[in-house]
User: What shape does this take?
Amino acid sequence: MYVANQLSSEQLRRIAKQQTQAKLLLRLQAVVLAQEGRTAPEIAKILSVTYRTVQYWIQRYNRHGLHGLKDLRRGGNQRKLTDQQEQQIKKYLDCQADDPAGGIRRGQDLRQWIHQHFGVLYSLPGIYDLLHRLGYRCLMPRPRHRKADPQLQAAFKKTFWQR
Assistant: This one.
């Protein structure tokens, strides 16, 4: 198995001793073993990975050096709104929360509002993810009614079963 002579085995061992990331350490060990002349199946057996994985690591090392052994950046969908737009939504929702007569109470309403103001169409689960990201949580009932009278409730409990 061909390994580019970018660093010697001794240099790679020194780098490996300083590593705190287990994945990178395993990959460095594979490169060192390959430099010593071991085959991909032998290295795979020693490190408990597949031989194809070893080949992939060596290929990345040959192309990109040590940087190629680090974890690659993961993809993902881009956000539909900018941070500034999300903060505008948060301000709007905070203002609406103080209005007892109106305001946005459902995800569907917020979905329509965002579509009207920003021209972005979210799915309903996407709206709930956005709300969670902005720090909002599902509404929960109060443990006690705010107008409850504890003394009256205690008196009721004492006299209810005596009838």
